[in-house]
Write a structure and sequence with these properties.
Blueprint: E1 9-13, H1 21-31, E2 35-40, H2 46-54, E3 61-64, H3 70-84, E4 89-92, H4 111-132, E5 140-146, H5 158-178, E6 183-190, H6 196-199, H7 204-214, H8 223-234, E7 245-248
Parallel strand pairs: 1-2, 1-4, 2-3, 4-5, 5-6, 6-7
The chain binds nicotinamide-adenine-dinucleotide (NAD).
Binding site for NAD(+): 14, 20-21, 94, 164, 193-197
Catalytic activity: a 2,3-saturated acyl-[ACP] + NAD(+) = a (2E)-enoyl-[ACP] + NADH + H(+)
Organism: Shouchella clausii (strain KSM-K16)
Length: 258
Amino acid sequence: KAIDLSNRTYVVMGVANKRSIAWAIAQALAGAGANLVFTYAGERLEKNVRSLAETLEGEHLVLPCDIANDEEIDKTFNEIKKKAGVIHGLAHCIAFANKEELEGEYLNVTRDGYLLAQNISAYSLTAVAKAARPLMSEGGSIITMTYLGGEKVVRNYNVMGVAKAALDASVKYLANDLGKDGIRVNAISAGPIRTLAAKGIGGFNNVLKEIEERAPLRKTTTQEEVGDAALFLASDLARGITGEILHVDSGYNILSLA
Ligand code: NAD
């Protein structure tokens, strides 16, 4: 194995179904021998996550964690501490915004919609980093998922772009706070991938077509490409990297419009 994560435990948050980026990350980490703890939002998803987890080798914990609820976050991480002990990393693959605010003009966003997107998609990283820190006594790697729409204006991405900008800044502040504990914090900026969350974004098919035509690699990003990049960031190969936004997007972000 090029990367060996055996005897290490990683928390993977945000598997909804087999298309989820979190699932690709879980498969990559499990492939390197890691023990996993899956967290899911809401009872509706439990069965999905359990049946996916069962397809992986080894024993993997599956626990509920609604990221909007501080008590539930505390409860989940206490449970992880009890059942898994020390953890070596965490993949935060969670975002949410109202569908009707992911099209048209950004300025129509409501206060509630704005706060909802910030709460679930940006603040939640800080909340889980705080809860995970005491369990990461051997250091480790926290990874989140971001998108180009937080750096540049991407049509229809709107309030989620503003949330990703906050998420990207959080990655840097958290990296600075947690570096002294040997904990690295990085984001992967993935090119557009057809998942449940992406379904809510207006004009998504046109975006995929544009990537195929113009991205340096002339192809859209796959979940597996993101999973492999996450495996690298989770491993000691990335021991010198923190506070970084790593683009896994066929190079699309380097282009200008012309
Ligand atoms: P997905 O729908 O499979 O995953 C989103 C997850 O967020 C779901 O599992 C959902 O249950 C979870 N979630 C929502 N509200 C929650 C809450 N209150 N508590 C806990 N979990 C909650 O879609 P995905 O595309 O795999 O998204 C994962 C991450 O990747 C998101 O941050 C997304 O913004 C990011 N991302 C996606 C793309 C893309 O094109 N798909 C591109 C770049 C970044």
